[in-house]
Amino acid sequence: MRLVVSGEWFGGKGLLEVEVRDLLPLSRPEDIPLQRGFLVVSYDLTEELLGVPIKRSAYPSLLFLRTGGVRELSRTPAGAFLKPEGATLRGEEFRERIGRVKDYIERGDVYQINLTSGFLFSFRGDPLDVFLRFFSRQPVPFAFFLDAGDFFLMSGSMELFLKKEGSRLESRPIKGTGRDPEAILSSEKERAENLMITDMMRNDIGRVARAGSVRVRELFRVERYRTLCQMLSIVEGETEGNLPHILRHTFPPASVTGAPKRRAVEIIEELEPHPRGYYCGAAGFVKENGDFTLSVLIRTAYGGGKQLTYFAGCGIVWDSDPLRETEELLLKVRAFYGDRLHPSD
């Protein structure tokens, strides 16, 4: 087993290797140990928490890694070569699904759906080197690589799902993607998309927070990364709830489902041919005192042997343009594979 994480998890830079003492597959949030470790939550847990049947992966719904010391990663990246093998929703298929989402919006079923596709790759080399190339193209605060033995998981996420410090609970939902901050800020579509998800996160935190403590601390902040820019907002509240209680009332993350959440999950299940598995779940560090930091598992790949699937998605609203959404989808793949995919892929 091996766990490599961005130094920003610990307030630093670069990449760190975390000692893994044990790995526990779990089935319920209540099974999470009250000790120091790294937690991975699969989107599969959605079925239990929302009562909506979904396509499930072959992996445990929850993984808890008991962790020890942390040291700088001492490794010179070797060659790792990716070969595209297709997608679960190719260009025209993805655009057709966008049309169906807009039909649901027109009927009043939902306001927004996060529609995703999986990009299939074979590769040569060590999967850790695939992650190192990924991170070098786009360093992000919540990146990590986990080799669990029979499978591996890597994420290049910049999205904070939930962070608890004492009684303070914070979320930073992301919606709004582009190459230019001004273009994002001036787009009514991007702002509306972000506002809807921020309001959902405010409601989710409100389910576990002290009455009157929930507030939106910041709205429409744009952060620049190496290959793209993202818009986020900051929601916070005060809570005495523990991690299992909070997960049960806030998972899955609003930004990777849609509004309203339950109906969005039902439509996602209809339109997406793939199980999401760990993609669109959450992962991060848990402390002995009950504090934790969990990212949203966006820009995430997992697999085994010499095969992996990298996932990306887009928030679809009424005025979404199918071609532009496809271009946004491929922009999110750019950090993983470079500029070699096109809207028809």
TrEMBL record:
Superkingdom to which the source organism belongs: Bacteria
Gene3D superfamilies (alphabetical): Anthranilate synthase
Chorismate-utilising enzyme C-terminal domain: residues covered: 92-332
One MF annotation (Gene Ontology) recorded for this entry: 4-amino-4-deoxychorismate synthase activity
Biological process, per Gene Ontology: L-tryptophan biosynthetic process
InterPro entries reported in the protein's UniProt record: ADC_synthase (IPR005801), Anth_synth_I-like (IPR019999), Chorismate_C (IPR015890)
PANTHER family linked: AMINOBENZOATE/ANTHRANILATE SYNTHASE (PTHR11236), AMINODEOXYCHORISMATE SYNTHASE COMPONENT 1 (PTHR11236:SF50)
Name by which UniProt lists this protein: Anthranilate synthase component I family protein
The organism of origin for this protein: Aquifex aeolicus
